[in-house]
Design brief:
Layout: H1 2-14, H2 18-28, H3 30-41, H4 45-81, H5 87-131, H6 137-155, H7 159-168, H8 177-191, H9 196-204, H10 206-211, H11 216-230, H12 234-245, H13 253-260, H14 262-265, H15 272-275, H16 281-298, H17 305-316, H18 320-325
Helix pairs in contact: 2-3, 4-5, 6-7, 8-9, 8-16, 11-12, 11-16
Length: 326
């Protein structure tokens, strides 16, 4: 009897209730916390890459501006040296060059401040990742949840709400508000049926878009042509096609043939092949395409992080391991 009661007593101690067992399995042990920490850090690729890509873009833009301005000033000096000017003309010309150099200095100072802020943001994110350990992983996880929520809000165009959450949580350096503000200007313009800001964005990122074989600029040009046809401005549409669409002929001849046929069919056509080109949903398609190119350029996921985490979590709920615990 004593043996039986001892065995029963030990069994009662060594077999905790299901709830306790679940708590132990979900990460209270140090080894489990370290594993959870390691797996969490593997998901932070976008967290570091986005500010780094933005930093590189700013540096490239500043360098281009400096090269352009300096080249222009040098050309002005050479022209002045090779021209027989009066004293007053020479003074006026040199004063103009000095004024341009002063403007360049102001641009460089502003660009340097921007680069410094972006480098600071990269440093803040590295520090944030280095600060996590087994003791503060819960608090760090709460911050990550807020980051994911801000990411979702910015992608869904809830900019003010996202900014308020980031500001109230003191994590402005940990979210990409300025990057999404750049996208916001282009998206708003496309929703108002204006392509100029989107074309300017394509020009700024021309080399990288070309490397990824993007068709965004071509689609924007097509839409601008369609709007000229819709306005029944055929001569301007033809001139526009010769200037902006003809260079794409070698790679997109079928699309060009189709869109050029709209000059004959007009916007009120009932022919389905050409009628779809005049539908307003084409602007929504441009918005979606811009978002995809924008995310690809900055190394972002095409889906919001919140969706990805939710899908992964819901899939995990169906695993045999968790069904066994339940």
């Amino acid at each position: 009897m004593e043996m039986d009661s001892l065995i029963n007593g030990n069994a009662a101690v060594s077999a905790p209730p299901p709830t306790t067992a679940l708590i132990n399995l979900t990460g209270t042990t140090p080894s489990s916390k370290l594993t959870q920490l390691t797996e969490s850090l593997k998901l932070e690729h976008q967290f570091l890459r986005v500010p780094f890509e933005h930093y590189k873009k700013t540096i490239r833009a500043n360098n281009r501006a400096v090269e352009k301005e300096v080249s222009s000033v040098f050309s002005g000096v050479i022209d002045a040296a090779g021209t027989d000017m009066s004293k007053d003309d020479a003074v006026e010309h040199l004063t103009s060059l000095v004024s341009r150099l002063q403007g360049l200095k102001r641009k460089l100072e502003e660009g340097n401040r921007t680069e410094h802020l972006q480098a600071q943001r990269c440093r803040a994110r590295l520090d944030h990742l280095e600060s996590v350990d087994a003791e503060n992983i819960s608090e760090w996880g709460n911050t990550r949840l807020k980051r994911i929520l801000v990411d979702y809000m910015l992608r869904m165009s809830y900019y003010d709400t996202g900014m308020k959450l980031a500001d109230s949580s003191n994590m402005l350096d940990l979210v990409d508000i300025d990057v999404f503000q750049e996208a916001r200007r282009v998206i708003n313009a496309l929703q108002n049926r204006e392509v100029a800001p989107a074309l300017a964005w394509c020009a700024e990122n021309k080399s990288r878009l070309k490397k990824s074989k993007s068709k965004l600029e071509f689609q924007l040009r097509l839409q601008e042509f369609i709007e000229l046809v819709r306005a029944e401005n055929s001569m301007r549409a033809i001139t526009y096609a010769q200037k902006y669409l003809a260079p794409w002929g070698a790679t997109h001849i079928k699309e060009l043939q189709r869109v050029m046929a709209t000059l004959a069919f007009k916007s009120h056509t009932e022919c389905a092949t050409y009628k779809v080109l005049f539908e307003l949903k084409q602007w929504d398609n441009l918005v979606d395409q811009f978002k995809q190119e924008f995310c690809r350029l900055y190394g972002m996921t095409l889906e919001p992080l919140l969706n990805i985490y939710l899908q992964a979590g819901l899939s995990a709920l169906k695993t045999p391991y968790l069904v066994f615990i339940a």
